[in-house]
Amino acid sequence: MDKKVRTRFAPSPTGGLHLGGVRTVLFNYLFTKQHNGEFILRIEDTDRTRFVQGAEEYIYETLKWCGLIPDESPAVGGLFAPYRQSERKAIYREYADKLVANGHAYYAFDTPEDLERMRTDYKTEANPSPRYDATLRDKMRNSLSLGDSATQELLAKDTPYVIRIKAPLNETLEFKDMIRGTVQFNSSETDDKVLLKADGMPTYHLAVVVDDFLMKITHSFRGEEWLPSAPVHVLLWKYLFGLENMPEWAHLPLILKPDGNGKLSKRDGDRLGFPVFAMNWTDPRTNELSKGYRELGFLPEAFVNMLAVLGWNDGTEQELFSMEELLAKFSMDRIHKKGAKFSYDKALWFNKEWIKRLEADKLLPYVKAQFEENQIETGNDDKRLLEIIDQVKDRCILLGDFVEQASFFFKAPEKIDTAAILKKWDEHKKIFFAELVRAYELNQDFHHENLENIFKEIAAASQIKPGDLMLPFRVMLVGGKFGPHVFDIASSIGKSDTIQRIKHGLSLIDTDAEKATT
RNA sequence: GGAGCGUUGGUCAAGGGGUUAAGACACCUCCCUUUCACGGAGGAAUCACGGGUUCGAUUCCCGUACGCUCUACCA
Questions:
Q1: Mean pLDDT by 10 residues, chain A (518 residues)
Q2: What's the pTM?
Q3: Would you list the DSSP string of A341-356?
Q4: What is the interface pTM, i.e. ipTM, of the complex?
Q5: Is A481 in the active site?
Q6: How far is the CA of A45 from the C1' of B46 (A)?
Q7: What is the distance in angstroms measured between the alpha-carbon CA of A185 and the sugar C1' of B3?
Q8: Beta carbon of A91 within 7 Å of strand B?
């Protein structure tokens, strides 16, 4: 391949950027990077949607969070600007006119009602969805059926119209898909798709072909749902720029809903309780907020990893890939043809693995942010925080779990699970803890080994098994049955806090025990 | 209805004429841990169906079934 690889992604700014969209960019990005190519982000907006506040920025931010906007090619601007569809209206118009002039497209004056009528009038059992195609176009109001003079008259009167492609009969249309090999269609199966809408904006079909040509795109990635409209695009390439200049296509497999079948949608996320957007997304039409993976406590590394192996693997047992590893190992020919059902459980597993895998100092900023959000003061001692992260990160699935798993290092628990203690509580244990407090008060060395030794000595003297005392101790310190080793915690929070928490625990146990008896 | 695409455990999947058909998630059992996790060992569970080709088909070919996508002046 001697020509420079150039790829693009064209998100619509109205729909947010969901899992499938991010994965398309990811594969696109990996491929482009591997070929040392150039990646173009084009915004697929329309007159109606281009003013949606913050939608473009949202897309950039998502891609930045995932590490998918390469530094060397800026998001907007560059060699082939403008990249916003709404700013390229005149360009599309020019090519639509050219197609009409060459006889490959025509004006159609049908109103929405006309089209509706056509769909009901010609609907039969054998053909439940009639199309505007070679069999029907003579019966509709267009420049082909009306003739030149009538058409000119309508145009002169500013009658609204669209431009439709004139799909030929019985031609074999084929193209090579990077994932599926050669795909063939019969041109009779494609209908006369609208290329230029009445408002002067192009449809996706025209825009994608024109832009891919003008921006010299060599490889074009999109979801599998576009496969059925590929013949229209092949036709446009043939009429406008020559098939030899057509980029290679890759139709990526769909991401399917976890239960049942079908494409994963925003609704499924709401219904089953997991996000389908990388970041929080507020639908501009309904103002409805959908939670994002970022806000839910996912690491970008985990999110990207999870997406990468949804529809691709390297043929080994490896499942955990950093971006560097993906760049080294990704290849188009190992992308699956089959759509994959999304599994949130597996997504959580990836996050858990990445939290375990990342060094504490990489985790530090995330953990700090979590504590800040929950108004827990961690002080300025990063060294201590790093130690704590190392102690608890194995038990965290989401970044937010650090709050539950480590907040007691900084702050006495608000609630104590006294019920867990009271099941096996008695006077002897009460006395033990009173003695423990006294012993710890006198003690200067608050290292965990020493604390454990003192604890065990007193237990032995009281003739109670240490095991029966560990749980109450733990609950007093952290509030519940979880967390790292008790003596590590005691050592970390220090003498006065430890003693205070035991005392507080004892008084709570007393009051709750009374409540239980009355 | 039509066209295109697809079909290995519940899910993600490796493999691709002869295999005890990898591995992961989830589930279950046990071990470790005087908590919760992590970790370790094990278990249950799969080649859609029917025809070919072949000594032999999960693998190749042809059908069938099923599923999905599209069938908008949405992308």
A1: 79 82 95 91 68 76 87 58 84 97 97 94 91 94 95 96 96 93 92 95 94 94 95 97 95 93 90 94 85 96 97 94 96 95 96 96 96 91 94 96 95 91 91 96 90 94 92 95 95 95 94 81
A2: 0.93
A3: E--HHHHHHHHHHHHH
A4: 0.95
A5: no
A6: 46
A7: 8
A8: no
